[in-house]
Amino acid sequence: MRLVADLHTHSIASGHAYSTIDEMARTAALRKLEMIAITDHGPAMPGAPHAYYFGNLHVLPEVIYGVEVLKGIEANIVDFEGNIDLPLDYLKKMDIVLAGLHAVCYPGGSTDQNTRAVIKAMENPQVDIIVHPGNPVYPIDQRKVIQAAIENDTVLEINNSSLTVSRAGSCENCLNIARAAKEMGATIVIGSDAHTSFDVGNLSTSLEMVMEVGFTEEEVLNTSIKRIKEYLRQKGRKRFL
Ligand SMILES: [Zn+2]
Ligand SMILES: [Zn+2]
To answer: How many whole angstroms separate alpha carbon 167 and alpha carbon 186?
Structure first.
């Protein structure tokens, strides 16, 4: 299985990431990726850019060094109602919107509260991908979340950095999510969550897990540029209409 896109990366604008968009795109090209999404953290995270940053992303070229660059955000789910931290006008301009639970931005709750927060975020038609749902700091009812992902046409991420450098203790949760997603027929995506250009396209640990579980290419969003564009078009993303 070949992954042609990395749909979860951070530039220096995130405040705790270390490479420019130029460097990210250059590395993506060197590593033969056809597409990357720049998905800097939403404004609620300390050090993250103001909403204006997201509003102005259209000044960037759509293709850099031959790599299609999606202008996106990794929004913060900020409460148990699944609200996220970018106003609708801005969300509508994005090429892709990821959302997830992060310390400082989200109060943290019981399994029921976390599950509700994630499901409510998925019910927001502006949310395309739920990132790192396997984070053990925020336990969720995995099957309920997967079911809601299917019903709301949202994709769940198997986050490569969760299996390597971040969110210790994620491996078992991610494996269980992958197995249940496969069984229930949900689409998944693999993201690097790169915070430096050196990690752009670092997807191999998640890819191994997903292949072990028996996913086919059709069930993994970022195996096909055509499928990614079709998905984002279906979600109403302007760039692909
Ligand atoms: Zn980050
Ligand atoms: Zn994150």
So the answer is: 23
